[in-house]
Amino acid sequence: MSHNKTQTTSIKIGSHTWHVAIACDTGLRRQHNEDSVGVASIYREQSPPLLVAIVADGVASQPDGKRASSDVVRFMLQTLCEATGPGSTILRNAIETANLRMIASFHQQWQRQKTDIINAEKNLIQQQNLPQHAPADTLSPVSQYNPEINEPVTKADMPASTVVAVLIDPVTVVVANLGDSRAYLVSQQRVVQISEDHVDQRRANLLTRYMGVEQVIEPAIKEISIVPGDLLLLCSDGLTNEIQPHRLRDILIEGRRSRKPDMMVDNLVQLAKQRGGRDNISVIALQCDESVDTKLHKTLISKEIVVNTILAALMIFLVFVSIYSILR
Questions:
Q1: What is the pLDDT of residue 118?
Q2: 126 CB-contact burial (10 Å; exposed 0-12 / middle 13-18 / buried 19+)
Q3: pLDDT tens column, 85-136
Q4: Contact, 24 vs 3, CB < 8 A?
Q5: How far is CA 187 from CA 37, 43, 52, in A?
Q6: Which 8-state DSSP code applies to residue 160?
Q7: d(C-alpha 145, C-alpha 147), whole Å
Q8: CA–CA distance, 149 with 185 (Å, rounded to integer)
Q9: What angle do CA 38, 113, 146 make, to 5 degrees?
């Protein structure tokens, strides 16, 4: 997804309806968007429904960031469609499984490319009627321009991505992350960062955790409490690197109060671009609301309470009237 227009949807999970706004913008300095975002409602047999939102940001120091971030979203959603169990367990498993699939996919593609290069060289040798072990100066261009064919794969060759994700079922909300993509909870007048920044403090912008390279990873996992009206924000560092914390806090609090997450997301993306837009900017806002059914149920209960109160008062009044009549 790479566009300037904010997309919106509403998804019912249990007794709550979540209003979702999504934006993924290239920014002003980058030619390509290496962020990926995903939002899905997952309905499983004999298990409660899930709402999943994911922001992934290709690591700049690694090659092919778009492929990495896209794989994060795709592999996580595929895994979650078949998952069962507690929210924190299945979200952790989705991240770890996606990570292993990313690594396996890279090595498979690397091997295919190597095989293609070897086959192309053999074909050229046959076409040129060269011996199989021709001198170096007579080797085909394929071999001369692809010296890496015989080099071992290194970690620097592997695409990598950060991730921040939220998983919502009817009773729990779980947030997980690797890297510097962030999650915030906005409740009342408070804004709390609930993700961890996996960054080396001594060397700016050097990530210490991400997906796609190491087979064993340690995502930060947190289960949080949500009440109707609360707002969650997921974003890549293209947003948080441009907007000062106090300004971000003010926008989030106002966005929660106005209950217009789409306008808030638009404002955040535009402000990040006004401040420089040096990186890709991805934002997902999710605001919790009571479902229509729950609101109707509460309204009916409230009306029933009012009617019962009126009837009780009337009964008391009639008792007093009766007593007054007897005493006279």
A1: 75
A2: exposed
A3: 999 999 999 999 999 999 999 999 888 877 877 777 778 777 776 565 555 4
A4: yes
A5: 24, 28, 20
A6: -
A7: 6
A8: 48
A9: 125
Token code pair at residue 321: 């009237």
Whose structure tokens read 């778009």?
Answer: 66
What is the separation of C-alpha 241 from the centre of its chain, rounded to a whole number of angstroms?
18
CA distances from 125 to 37, 111, 141 (A): 46, 21, 10
CA separation, residue 229 to residues 63, 203, 222, 285 (Å) = 41, 39, 20, 12
User: Which tokens is 316 given?
Assistant: 């008391």
Q: Helices 65-80 and 87-128: crossing angle, nearest 10°?
A: 130
- Which residue(s) pair with 50 in the sheet? 42
Return the structure tokens found at 250.
């003010």
The encoded tokens of residue 195 equal 């993700």
Q: Decide: 193 and 183 in contact? Cβ < 8 Å.
A: yes
Look at strands 35-42 and 50-58 and give their pairing. antiparallel
Question: Order of strands, edge to edge, in the sheet holding 161-168?
Answer: 35-42, 50-58, 161-168, 173-178, 220-224
d(CA 97, CA 76): 7
> Could you say which architecture CATH assigns to the domain 7-110+153-290?
4-Layer Sandwich (3.60)
